[in-house]
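Risk mitigation, structural track. In case the binding assays with magnesium ion fail to produce interpretable data, a predicted complex structure has been prepared as a fallback.
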Amino acid sequence: MTLIVQKYGGTSVGSPERIDAVAEKIGKFRDDGDDVVVVVSAMSGETNRLTSLAQEITEQPIPREMDVLLSTGEQVTIALLCMALKKRGYAARSFTGGQVRILTDNSHTKARIKEIDSSLMRAELDQGNIVVVAGFQGADDNGNITTLGRGGSDTTAVALAAALDADECQIYTDVKGVYTTDPRVVEDAKLLKSITFEEMLELASLGAKVLQLRSVEFAGKYKVPLRVLSTFEESEGTLITLEEETDMEDPAIAGIAFERDEAKLTVAGVPDIPGIAYKVIGPVSEAGIEVDVIVQNAAADGSNDITFTVKRAESDKAKEILDTIANDLKAKEVTLDRRVCKVSLVGVGMRSHAGIASKMFKALADENINIEIITTSEIKISVVIEEKYLELAVRALHSVFELADSPTGNEA
Ligand code: ADP
Ligand code: ASP
Ligand code: MG
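Fallback model:
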């Protein structure tokens, strides 16, 4: 017998009609004799709505209470889905994350899964039930409700698939699978039949929100067969493969990811001495602000400029911290540019193809787009540019690297 874990995202369960349609889809798998564990997100817009409610009460909600609040979104969907399944004659039972013993650490709003006790789910399956689990949540050692960060239902699904040793984990969403870039930005983005874990990890970490980064990490670590596919249309979707399994020749570039809401901070004119980067970045990280791209330029006069990017929502807080230590650092000035974004090219083929970077820079130059920061690793190149050029840059790169109609035939 086959055991499948399926996850349906917010748009897929965005209305009672859609929940009904999802129930019908799940029912077909059951009719085929599969055991099914279903993970659902909150109805679309709900997590944002709850977040704004909290913001109306206080600018800095207590993380523990935020988790109690946010976890309610998913609780609504599990109940409605079970009702829809029962209406169709299927035995189904709903559970919160804590109830199926998804044990996490206690870092509220960004908790990590430590352990899952699958015995309860197995007992439910053995009794013939479809098990419906609230995504994005768990409980810590003391039973406090925790949530796993935005997009966390993907991670719930993959973690359950790993714990249950499922035959496949299927992530159903509002597009047909993983594309060469966000199909909402590039209309002729190509649907990929498969993509390696390594590339998917990079794309997810560089902003492609189709899968939460941690879900890909889990799938790689526990070798969970993972597929992304459409809730609304029949198709094979995209299989995330272990690299060894791909025998086709990899195209140089798998895809383009981007991150919109970035901000760039520069601490200018600090002395070029050991420890200065730590003095600048240390206090920002200690305040829990995630620092992304960092560059340091030493000038001939022995002074130094340190520039780095953070999420735009955290940039004012980062600027405040830098302002308070500017004197101490002997900095000339601290500046904040809130209008930047990051665009990244990703592909394992970069290892063997030379000239990708220069081709990328030329494509951007041809569009008159100024590159503010460049960072590279073995399989990716990222540039920080003005946000108003994001779409233009992504489309230009997609076209220059011929991602829409590559002759190598990795299209679905
Ligand atoms: P869900 O609510 O189902 O979890 P998300 O909105 O979190 O869905 O993720 C799906 C969205 O990810 C798509 O609608 C698409 O706009 C976006 N996306 C970004 N990059 C990609 C990509 N490379 N391939 C597919 N979708 C992408
Ligand atoms: N509902 C949560 C969110 O909107 C989790 C998820 O959908 O994966 O981020
Ligand atoms: Mg998502």
